[in-house]
């Protein structure tokens, strides 16, 4: 982080010097006009990495001084062009551009850099609601209380977010479903604290035993599984809960696929199946079988099913047409290591989410008793194109710190969701809180 801050402090002066150089060279480059029949060549660029707002100097051949005729992109995202002299272009890296080669296009021809720009995300962790103490209290932000970790064996991980950016969590210690609006105001959507049971109804009339997994459809309907009642409940936006199916095994996790309009549920056992069914509870089928303690599930934008293989320390992707599996990340070894695909190591991965780009987020601590000494107290990020694993936020050290990236800390992160804007939400079990990660 020191390198980033240092660069940001000195770069305005560096930009001035480079821009002055570009403009002073215009006279020398008057003859370097763009040839529409020649190739566009990108020879180099600097700096090679940075955060959003970084000004990049691109060197090459057959550019043009007409900035309106130039298109510069990173991962298909346009960069704002400041200046060009025919052999150099100064452009600004936009937010969330990601890492990859830089492309320069003029009049239908494109030149691509050999090196990749390394985008450094600034991921800021804050506490959306909760204060570390177990209990029950509706209110705003730190005034609210949850009971995620009041008993060490609670292992829910149920969290979902709607298109209006409301966050919903299963609160097993309070036997209910909680709602958190974008401002951090917590209310009870369905269920009654201190009143475990099994009953349909609206709001406080509904009863849950151990609400665990949670998912959401396009209309904002929630689907919650309850291993205490062996059922799947549909909860409408007004808080009306109704059983749609009783299950073949204790249901722990559930996922909804926007492509097929189907639900999937599983039980964290071994060997274990994955069941598929309609949202009305009909047409239950076994689509995958023989898994070693499958945990969190998430559906990608193409209908692919991602599963945390808790027992194998891996993340697998299943093709919804053939159900053929691909191990996208995880060596199988218990540990905490970033790297490409099966070089990476996980420590009993638990919760999972997928965004619109097939990027995957993994809540890394699924230990049975909520072990603060587990080597993974983080949320990991899996690039949907390269399967490169990195730490999104947190580290291998448990704590309760709001900060940037790996300086932040969680204490048994076990549930994760991502909204339409790329903001990530985390159930932080032992801190009895819901954390928010804004990535810039």
Structure commentary:
This protein is mainly β and 440 residues long. It contains 1 helix and 36 strands. The protein has one helix at 2-24, and strands spanning 41-46, 49-50, 55-61, 70-74, 77-78, 80-84, 88-92, 100-106, 109-119, 123-130, 139-140, 159-161, 167-171, 176-180, 185-191, 201-202, 214-216, 222-226, 231-235, 240-246, 253-257, 262-266, 272-278, 285-291, 294-299, 305-309, 314-318, 325-329, 339-340, 351-354, 360-363, 377-382, 388-395, 413-418, 424-428, 433-439. The strands form 8 sheets. It has a 5-stranded mixed beta sheet, with no helix packed on it. The longest helix has 23 residues, at 2-24. The protein is elongated and about 80 Å long. Residues 1-14 and 23-31 have low confidence and may be disordered.
Detail the topology: elements first, then pairings.
Elements: H1 2-24, E1 41-46, E2 49-50, E3 55-61, E4 70-74, E5 77-78, E6 80-84, E7 88-92, E8 100-106, E9 109-119, E10 123-130, E11 139-140, E12 159-161, E13 167-171, E14 176-180, E15 185-191, E16 201-202, E17 214-216, E18 222-226, E19 231-235, E20 240-246, E21 253-257, E22 262-266, E23 272-278, E24 285-291, E25 294-299, E26 305-309, E27 314-318, E28 325-329, E29 339-340, E30 351-354, E31 360-363, E32 377-382, E33 388-395, E34 413-418, E35 424-428, E36 433-439
Parallel strand pairs: 2-9
Antiparallel strand pairs: 1-3, 3-7, 4-5, 4-8, 6-7, 8-9, 10-36, 11-15, 12-13, 13-14, 14-15, 16-20, 17-18, 18-19, 19-20, 21-22, 22-23, 23-24, 25-26, 26-27, 27-28, 29-33, 30-31, 31-32, 32-33, 34-35, 35-36
